Amino acid sequence: MKQILIIEDDPLIAELQKDYFGLHGIEAEIVHDGQAGLERALSGGFELLILDLQLPGVNGFEICRQVREKLDIPVLIVSAKNEELDKIRGFGLGADDFVTKPFSPSELVARAKAHLARYERFTKDRVKERSASDSSVLHVRGLTIHKAAYRVFVHDREAFLTTKEFEVLLFLAEHPNRVFSKEELFERIWGLASSGEIATVTVHISRIREKIEEDPSKPQFIGTVWGAGYRFTV
Fold first, then answer.
1. Domains in the chain, start-ordered, CATH in brackets?
2. Which of 144, 184, 156, 153 lies closest to 168, judged by CA?
3. Does the keyword Transcription regulation apply (predicted)?
């Protein structure tokens, strides 16, 4: 059974989430305090985190930041804060999705299951043989992408990407010179069609550029095609 952690200070909302996840075969543990929730999340053993932003002790943004530094599990923010800046900040700190209260419990479960399925596939891939063959390594002008090992090097310097960042980069690199809109990338990478927040695509592209580009303001690998989307240039 899948194990997830819910950090939510409203007992009614937390229990509602737990009950709906339970109906779908997902076991949820609830923590109501931010500091306690952070410590519990970092203790490991969970495959997904449901996170509120307005919490006593430590707020959700800080929890997201610290969790992302140490863990690569999916993080879904569920919050009454609906400002665009809050969403962008959450995505920028590494959140995988943002659900606004009041929310549909069924939709929340559907999104969580989609992220769990993708995380499971990534985990299985990562435990495969790491001695990648030539066919599983991409070389593009000093950029080296090891598909099986989920590692990226820029001129022999390793660039540490999150799973989502790696998947975005790999997808674009495997489809060079083709333009993909934000909506297309969101659907391909997050697998949630237009039900999610496509702002996360912009944030992830920006973070990838910071890690692989010599000058992120003048990207050599992932370019912006204004009004259309993004293109990986070989």
1. 2-123 (3.40.50.2300), 132-232 (1.10.10.10)
2. 184
3. yes
